[in-house]
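RETRY 2/3 - previous attempt timed out on the joint model. Re-submitting the same 1638-residue input unchanged.
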Amino acid sequence: MHPKLYRHVRESICKGALYVLTGPALASFTFPDCTSGPLANVSVCDPSLDATTRAKALISLFTTAEKINLTVSTSPGVPRLGLSSYVWWNEALHGVADSPGVTFSADNKSAFGSATSFPQPITLGAAFDDDLVYAVASTISTEARAFSNNGHAGLNFWTPNINPFRDPRWGRGQETPGEDAFHLSSYVKALIAGLQGTEYASSGSTSNNNHNTNSNTTTKSYRKVTATCKHFAGYDIESWNGNFRYQVDASINTQDMVEYYLPSFQACARDAGVGAFMCSYNAVNGVPTCADDWLLNDVLRTHWNWSSTGSVVSDCDAVQNVFLPHRWADSRAGAAAAALKAGTDLNCGTYFSHHLVEAYDSGLIEDADLDTALTRLYAGLVELGFFDPAEEQPYRSLGWNDVNTPEAQNLARLAAAEGTVLLKNINNTLPLTVEKMQGKKVAVLGDWATATTQMQGSYYGTPPYLHSPLYAVQELLGNESVVYAYAPSYTDPTSDSWDAIWEAAGEADILLYFTGIDDTVESEGNDRVSLSWMGSQLDVIGDLAMSGKPLVVVQFGGGQLDSTPLIENPGVGALLWGGYPGQDGGTAVLDVITGAYPPAGRLPVTQYPAHYIANVSMTDMALRPDQETGFPGRTYRCFTAQIALSDTTSNTFDIASLITNCSGVAYLDLCPFATVSATVSNTGNVQSDYAALLFLKGEFGPAPYPLKTLVAYERAHNISTGLNSAATLELALNLASLSRVDESGKRVLYPGSYCIELDTMPALASLNFTLTGKETVLDEWPAAPTGRKGSGTPEVGPDYYVGGLGTVNDAGGEIPLGA
Amino acid sequence: MHPKLYRHVRESICKGALYVLTGPALASFTFPDCTSGPLANVSVCDPSLDATTRAKALISLFTTAEKINLTVSTSPGVPRLGLSSYVWWNEALHGVADSPGVTFSADNKSAFGSATSFPQPITLGAAFDDDLVYAVASTISTEARAFSNNGHAGLNFWTPNINPFRDPRWGRGQETPGEDAFHLSSYVKALIAGLQGTEYASSGSTSNNNHNTNSNTTTKSYRKVTATCKHFAGYDIESWNGNFRYQVDASINTQDMVEYYLPSFQACARDAGVGAFMCSYNAVNGVPTCADDWLLNDVLRTHWNWSSTGSVVSDCDAVQNVFLPHRWADSRAGAAAAALKAGTDLNCGTYFSHHLVEAYDSGLIEDADLDTALTRLYAGLVELGFFDPAEEQPYRSLGWNDVNTPEAQNLARLAAAEGTVLLKNINNTLPLTVEKMQGKKVAVLGDWATATTQMQGSYYGTPPYLHSPLYAVQELLGNESVVYAYAPSYTDPTSDSWDAIWEAAGEADILLYFTGIDDTVESEGNDRVSLSWMGSQLDVIGDLAMSGKPLVVVQFGGGQLDSTPLIENPGVGALLWGGYPGQDGGTAVLDVITGAYPPAGRLPVTQYPAHYIANVSMTDMALRPDQETGFPGRTYRCFTAQIALSDTTSNTFDIASLITNCSGVAYLDLCPFATVSATVSNTGNVQSDYAALLFLKGEFGPAPYPLKTLVAYERAHNISTGLNSAATLELALNLASLSRVDESGKRVLYPGSYCIELDTMPALASLNFTLTGKETVLDEWPAAPTGRKGSGTPEVGPDYYVGGLGTVNDAGGEIPLGA
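RETRY 2/3 succeeded.
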């Protein structure tokens, strides 16, 4: 649901409420009184029992009518039992965010009037720094708990959005960390550990990692907040050519499903122990996901061995969509029953409370079905300490002092700087040091120059401040050194707004141009229809480029634009991408421009040429190219570009021996293979970060072969310059790193020749090794029932995975490390 | 440009202004002082001379630099000559509207704080009543002059948008009166007469026409305001699948061009004598229209014999688009020169003022080119009385008392009621008289129930009031009889907002449901991606329909939705379409619901089935179907449905004799053929209107043949019931009515058998006649230069024009006239 509608919806909820809030006016809920309330002597209040046992004891007290009423997102509770109402719908995509369960005080200067607003996930993903992700998530959960303790939020949050950013047009791609399945899986494990307060072991380590999380809480016995991995699965279309998210039936073959669409969700459920999932609006291969018993039970709960306390909530109102427009069920009651029985435990909306009554009366569901769902939901609350004494839970003492701390605010700035990506730098345009700008007039131009709310992207709350690029430059250089002018926006370029540009540029010695796209062209419900820069923007920038003055262009927005015209224009000195950088975005981007922070982010999505979408239907979910139809394939793994190689070392491994070493590891794919040590030297003349991306190449397993696959990444910080500047990164690989998924969905280790490369376009270093012996299955796959569409064998085309994670315009050699 | 951006643009203009406003703060311009100012003795101030002579005398005084500065929409004037700055950009699509040249007082209760807001053209078009169009336009121009006289507006307005509503997805289709070329041509003649203050002769007449215009001004010697026919030509895509309006190259064959895309513009230029044209963003057959010498000179000025005082303004900033993204010219100066030389006289934006200097210096243009443009622009101002004594111009005395008159406000309500269309009525659901509702509880439901600004569509100002449907029902029945609840909107249907619906519906005896689409899915820059009702809306309405209570659904929005599910649902008693009904929309629609006003509007666009767009590329500009590609064709003329015939009379005409009778008629196509008298009886039991549509059928001229073509329409008002209720309409036909356009663009009269039908699905009456003799050209066509794309011969397919203007769901027999 679009955030703009929250307030309206909240009003509507109040008008049509079936319940009365029992706590203070603002409270999202109240904790039950386990000392002297009606539940005091019920086992749910006994901390010595396991969560499921405690939840069952509670649920046994409910009437059927009460149970049905408890299956919706604005839960009325059971007042006669002292069980409070509870609003399950809380958002925290990149900071505590406006949503039905979250309220900010009206005055943003007063307590709980604001919370730290970090960069959107697309920018955080660009940092390729999971320690940073963990630190950010830990801060968000600290602030969320502080809000919760004071009646301003619930205990569970509907974040992260972990669908891969498959198509460059997707309006919600900005909510994800990028397009790569491995990257998403790694990122989300760090994120969930930070949100849920579980221990986080970095997959690798660097010799000079100096991050600190600002959460000093070490309580591990209670969950900090519950995260919710969404949207399960195959959801990545808002509206394209008559296809709406509510009605799209994604046709996905098994190999793509297992290899691309599901790994991030497996990481959530099996490896990170996330507390909740959200099923999506769309259908997959004919079945609406919220009514898909195979997906929610066979895959999620059984194959991934997901926690018995994990619950599934429907997107809003995906249960309704099972009836209309999917027409999966022939009645409203039938749709509600199908969703509940398939494993959807909670309905965002009111479809369950309205139509499960009829479903129950007509025998489509029984009490056991309701009990299963409610047991999961309340066991999840038990794990959050809902029924336990506050004094034993350090999280319960978090308060307003723990929100917007200096550490949190610095982290927001750091995260934005780390996520800033250098796409072009010629003539030593960057760093544009303060020294270089001294005594000069700097023009701050463009439609993003005064961006404030824009910098937050979607799903945001009230931040303590929003520092625009113009603000940052004025703070740094003083108002008198700065001239500002607006310029044509992406959506409506008319020259009536241009005169000021010429005047300002004429006056200035240095030109900083801030522009890009925003939620007017990419947002929830709204996919893009073009990857091109607007003609007027290219015209204005092109005209400025003829001035001979230093010109830095900063591109914002989650989706990429084809920047070929800017890359090719010799008058454009530097091009940076900043995504949606959050509350301190202007300052952070300026940090990178001035060299105060190194430009070491990497694009987490491919920058396609503008004509790409003309050949590609958004609803074609295939990843592999198809020679017959001319389908070019998707993501960096499939995109054509050139790379160069240089070998350095090699080795041989026997598959059977590798497997033998896995005893004690629960899942073979997680079994360690080796650690790659990468030593990186800073040949530039200023201290810098380096985000190491490790790719696997080789012709093994089913054809067509990926040209390369991301298997590890790690970010080294603050590498100093000179001869002794080397930083060593340890990049851990497991058997999954070397595996492929076959057409039936099995993850398999194949004998063959492998090559590992560090970095892309060109690779900085590479090493070869060989696997010998027999191919071995690492992970079986639960086949979907027959009769579903789209589970067949994919077409086999030519080899196709080409290009680098990053962009076809990746400036490659033009970005001197720390230059 | 999108109205939302006006304020921003206005600020930007001020920041970057090249000029200083010379009048009072709010004044859009000041009239030159022809008595004692610098121009007093210049011929431009001599009312006895013709407009062009006077303009030339003025222009001869300008320096080249001054001339260049005067070619942009925010004209600086020439202060040294006492020539004021002038903002050419004034909007008045359906009432005086916010725009750079138009300002409303901040307090909407004070003078010039508001103006009458009529229905959007799509609703006004649905009335099929050109006398009404004339009355509305006369009122708008009266209010516009009043604003102008008081420094709140200019004298020229960039209205109407008269591109045919070709594709149901077009976001700006709402700004047009519909899809039919004849309808648009007839409508626009009435509109321009009303705006420009020229005499208007209704093409037909009805025996009981009782309209009055509220303009009693009979001054014919001065133009009231200058209208601007836009967007010339082939403009009807905002953004579809990577095609942006700024960059689209519309491929249109000559036959479609002459027969469909241009007739409304010919009516503007040749027949209505409009004062200005606007060229468009797109290219046609490879040439950006603002740089198209053939279109602007050969077609518009020469072939259509357009006034020498007529000027062409570019859309904002279409001159820039000639450079980027069209890349028609290889430099900025080249693009500006190409546009000026092709006949674009004025540039909305600043591209001319910036780049014509270089064009001049490099010899691409000379003074004569600038003189030609400026002569047209200033001759146009001369015709508006710009240089003449105020006391001789009654229009100059219009003031605040002439704005928002009771007559104007009644006309706004009447126009909305006339434009309301009945799509379904069963079980005598309508009229839902006040008597029927007495003592009952009425539920007012839906996302449009409280619509206010929504009702105005796009390009609006501040109206004196906005009466929502809820307001209207409460006024009529009293608050205590009404319960209101919101419901899911089109863009974000979540059941959190539904509970109130069930509660309200449960309480009520009668259900009124107001819904549809709005500018979130159809607007400038934003084409629709679906023609379906949202699943959630159908679900809610479907659930309400099961209640057995009378249920009336009113659908708003300019684009049609496929209403098959509502038509087929026996629980939906009535379905009305209201478009964007303007300031009194709620009241007007309720007038129709209660029977206070008859439901006699007709859809001016085809209601396509939802799947239609899946087969049709928006950029395929063809109108005819293509058997090979499966392209189904466009508009009611091409749509498959059944009709029934019944002959009544016949006759024979010799073509040569028909032509002989045309001596004295300037254009053969305008030569009268015959008048069809239609006598209509009211078989219902309440007084009603009847909008008569006359269609021509027959196999003559080039195949494929249209199944039918609209050739005349007329609306009879207030037809009483009973035996003596007949109203007679006189529907005038001319030779153009009988003609076809051949592949080379010639309009030709062919011998053959013709049939005229009154009304559609089924026809109420028909008559046959025959043309004998030799085929004869009525209008030659200036061929475009060779080397342009797309001017070839269209594919010949099967006969295809099927269906009725209106809708595939046209309720036909289910709408008892006046029942």
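Chain B has 22 helices and 28 strands. Closing ticket.
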